[in-house]
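Usage example:
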Amino acid sequence: MTRQIAVKALGIGKNVVCEKAATTVDSFKMVAAARYYPQLLSIMGNSLRFLPTFVAMQKLLVEGYVGEVQVCDVRVYGPSLLDESYGWTCEELMGGGGLHTIGSTIIDLLSFLTGSRAHRVHGLLRTFVQQNLSIRGIRRVTSDDFCFFQMLMSGKGSSSTGVCCAVTLNFNMPGSFVHEVMVVGSTGRLVARGTELYGQRNGSKNEELLLGDSGWSGPNVKAMPLPQIQGLSSMVKTLRQSFQAHEERRSWSREPMAMAPTFEDGLYVQTVVEAIKRSSTSGEWECVEIMREEPDPNHNLCEALQRNKM
Amino acid sequence: MTRQIAVKALGIGKNVVCEKAATTVDSFKMVAAARYYPQLLSIMGNSLRFLPTFVAMQKLLVEGYVGEVQVCDVRVYGPSLLDESYGWTCEELMGGGGLHTIGSTIIDLLSFLTGSRAHRVHGLLRTFVQQNLSIRGIRRVTSDDFCFFQMLMSGKGSSSTGVCCAVTLNFNMPGSFVHEVMVVGSTGRLVARGTELYGQRNGSKNEELLLGDSGWSGPNVKAMPLPQIQGLSSMVKTLRQSFQAHEERRSWSREPMAMAPTFEDGLYVQTVVEAIKRSSTSGEWECVEIMREEPDPNHNLCEALQRNKM
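Running the assembly step on the lines above writes:
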């Protein structure tokens, strides 16, 4: 429904901040609508970019703290993402699963941090827990609770070999979330553990704390890692600034929102997610090819038929 | 040279504890020799199995601490493994590189911990640092300093989907080694951080320390993670027990050495290492097929020719 609501809202002149779409085709239609109404704000809710930890990390990367970036290594571990009762979170085709829910925010974050995009991806998805106390009988979970994927980012220079990203997501680990993003480069490394940022240059003996925990007074959502919630909060604050900058609050200032993920970023993320899913089925590296043309109107039907065949 | 020395030593009636061979063919010849002299001790120097941390971990896994094993997640980070001057450590074909040096001990450890073997593997190797202050001019490092690989282990039961293993090795991170082995199962998890063992059952809120650091009084080898050195020390102690059990010290007691990796384990590890290297080139999942017959005498020549073609 994300696509229908987003496109309709833009059509009646509303600014739109929205969650990811369920498919690439939906994402593409959102991009088309956003292009059609350039005066309206249209951003994705991938809020990790707004978290001060990652704002600082990106700044340090640009300043050359780690030298040339070689490897990004991300892990998110935590409890099950499934709802209490059967619903879309259990269903892969409806956008459930660790890759779609959390993985997509990581894909967006890594393109923000490295300033480049994945051109080839490889992944493996698993559903270890297919039934539990509340989802049983004829019902089965089809969305992934474990996923690892690798992304080869396109190199910026001609000499560069490009960054390798490895991401591990595991949601069979009750307890608190582990949310770690590490970037290793030729002269040092940066690690964001939760909302804290650490760094170590190759010469020095120990890690240094670059940004401490700011103290979170908001609610603790059980089913979401803290960096995601705090990022959302930071994004809302930035949005407020953006609208307060103009007196009438009917238009908005572009500058604070410049780093927000656009619908185009949303299409990229959705394309990578689908390429990883394809790779998990095919076992091969899959190319990330961004959709450039409105798909055939029968596409959805064909896709549904093909899926049934598989 | 490992193969020649090992096979010759067995031939003149010596017990053999040795490092890994450089190729599968060499490993196979060592297996053949070990089978020919069953009275002699013939074990591989993959010493992680002997480290008390992993002995305890394996015991807890058998006792069902984590329930059914789902995922093994391993990371080893540290400084460069290259020698000061140009030598075999720089050369992939001579057995240099993170995968061959450290990865092989992890592959052996994971088959020890899970009690199963990899049947399909996928990997990616990179040499980020091809030249440094002492290796330069026309010389280039060809051995990997970064590697991640995945192994799908064969399931034990018919219902089991098999364990997924993900391993990340990165030797572009000067400072002390990070050596972490995590096993996640349906009812809990075990994590070995360095030589300490932690566990958490799904019901409980916090990790518990299951085995503390025993305090290491031996030397700190700069180019090797501590668990590997301590494991070696444990293995030597076990070897002493094994020989002290018999008065003359010319024969040895099999019982303490029962868990030692045999030459057959060595052949398995070498086969996985080569499959991962193949996968890094082909980009595809590669099957792990253990050599069962003496290879064609021209095999080495053919292999060399093929390599040159590539």
